[in-house]
């Protein structure tokens, strides 16, 4: 995954110092784009700029864009993604599997109201209900039916799965985690906030499932490695559920930044620059692959894995990571 090294070089070379809500400065750049592809046949005339081919494993499963220049905990990626897919807002699921990285953002009830899956599966909308008999009003005599807004919810993810099965060429397969009323008041509104699924064809006419992710805020040291792998995994899960082979994962990073110490040297404990420079010097290794249990056929099968009686080992048996041999972990302190 040399693209991650490109990100580090981009921010260190061209980033501007910015203050932000955390009080810790960042070096920031705008609009970094890349894509990874599972099938070279999609580009018969050569790879576009910033497109990176993933190797096609000879063994079962699909390659995953999971960094090898530092160790990343596969358990955290899988459990968090299943939490998103479940639509639950409670971090109890995460804590049960010893995933602690959402603890700082939960409220006193142990919930994250802006949790991504909440809006993936239960996006707030209004349906309109008649409240009385239609009657003419005003000088025009226009007939108006009294109505009131009734709160309702839309399961965006289930609809997209259904559409990919029934109408895969649909260009409206958009999933949003951004609800303005929530985002403008949230302790941590969604960073990776919008997705678009799209089916493309190879020159032979075979379907390939693609995913574009838009991310407004991108912590290069702590967040981006997980984002790359998580949404690569999501594409593979959607591919698995729909039977459409994976094609392209494209990623737009709006504010791509590195946390750094103040010009006077203070807040050095939050300085991610040295660790990322070390990571950039490391030689990337072979990418691992993911094997998803064939028994997982529906979103309900994924939701069932979130039940209290299901162990972490049982979850990881359903999503096996094979061939992962990373460099040692690098510790970065999070700016809250």
Molecular structure report:
By secondary structure, the chain is α+β, with helices and mostly antiparallel strands. It has a single domain (2-124, 148-322), classed as Thymidylate Synthase, Chain A. It contains 10 helices and 14 strands. It has helices spanning 2-14, 74-86, 92-96, 116-121, 156-166, 180-183, 224-242, 273-281, 299-304, 312-318, and strands spanning 16-18, 26-37, 51-53, 62-63, 123-130, 135-137, 142-144, 147-154, 174-176, 192-201, 207-219, 246-259, 289-292, 319-322. Strands 1, 2, 3, 9, 10, 11 and 12 form a 7-stranded mixed β-sheet that branches. The longest helix has 19 residues, at 224-242. The protein is globular and about 75 Å long. The chain starts with a helix and ends in a 14-residue tail after the last strand.
Oligomer: single chain
The number of helical runs is: 10
Helix and strand sequence: HEEEEHHHEEEEHEHEEHEHEHHE
Q: Largest sheet, if any?
A: 7 strands, mixed
Compute the number of structural domains.
1
Query: From the alpha-carbon coordinates, what is the Rg to the nearest angstrom?
Result: 22 Å
SSE-based structural type: alpha+beta
What does this entry show, briefly?
This protein has 336 residues and is α+β, with helices and mostly antiparallel strands.
Could you name the key traits of this structure?
10 helices, 336 residues, Thymidylate Synthase, Chain A, 28% helix, globular, three-stranded antiparallel β-sheet, alpha+beta, 14 strands, seven-stranded mixed β-sheet
Element layout with pairings:
Layout: H1 2-14, E1 16-18, E2 26-37, E3 51-53, E4 62-63, H2 74-86, H3 92-96, H4 116-121, E5 123-130, E6 135-137, E7 142-144, E8 147-154, H5 156-166, E9 174-176, H6 180-183, E10 192-201, E11 207-219, H7 224-242, E12 246-259, H8 273-281, E13 289-292, H9 299-304, H10 312-318, E14 319-322
Parallel strand pairs: 2-3, 11-12
Antiparallel strand pairs: 1-2, 2-12, 4-13, 5-8, 6-7, 9-10, 10-11, 13-14
Helix pairs in contact: 1-8, 2-7
């Amino acid at each position: 995954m040399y693209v991650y090294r490109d990100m580090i070089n981009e921010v260190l070379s061209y980033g501007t110092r910015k203050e932000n809500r955390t009080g810790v400065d960042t070096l920031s750049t705008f609009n970094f784009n890349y894509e990874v592809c599972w099938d070279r046949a999609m580009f018969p005339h050569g790879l576009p700029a910033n497109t990176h081919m993933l190797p096609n494993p000879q063994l079962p499963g699909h390659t995953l864009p999971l960094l090898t220049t530092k160790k990343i905990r596969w358990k955290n990626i899988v459990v968090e993604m299943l939490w998103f897919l479940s639509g639950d807002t409670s971090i109890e699921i995460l804590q049960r599997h010893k995933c602690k990285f959402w603890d700082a953002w939960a409220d006193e009830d142990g919930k994250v109201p802006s949790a991504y899956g909440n809006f993936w599966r239960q996006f707030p909308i209004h349906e309109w209900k008649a409240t009385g008999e239609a009657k003419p009003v005003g000088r025009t005599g226009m007939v108006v039916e009294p109505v009131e807004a009734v709160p309702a919810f839309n399961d965006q993810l289930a609809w997209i799965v259904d559409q990919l099965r029934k109408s895969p060429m649909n260009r409206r397969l958009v999933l949003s985690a951004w609800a303005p009323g929530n985002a403008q008041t949230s302790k941590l509104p969604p960073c990776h906030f919008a997705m678009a699924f799209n089916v493309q064809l190879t020159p032979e006419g075979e379907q390939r499932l693609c995913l574009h992710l838009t991310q407004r805020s991108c912590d290069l040291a702590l967040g981006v490695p997980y984002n790359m792998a998580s949404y690569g995994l999501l594409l593979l899960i959607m591919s698995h559920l729909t039977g459409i082979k994976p094609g392209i994962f494209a990623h737009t990073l709006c504010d791509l930044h590195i946390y750094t110490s103040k010009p006077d040297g203070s807040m050095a404990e939050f300085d991610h620059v040295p660790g990322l420079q070390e990571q950039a010097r490391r030689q990337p290794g072979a990418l691992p692959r993911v094997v998803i249990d064939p028994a997982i056929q529906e979103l309900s099968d994924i939701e069932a894995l979130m039940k209290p009686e299901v162990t972490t080992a049982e979850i990881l048996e359903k999503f096996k990571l094979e061939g992962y041999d990373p460099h040692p972990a690098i510790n970065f302190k999070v700016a809250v």
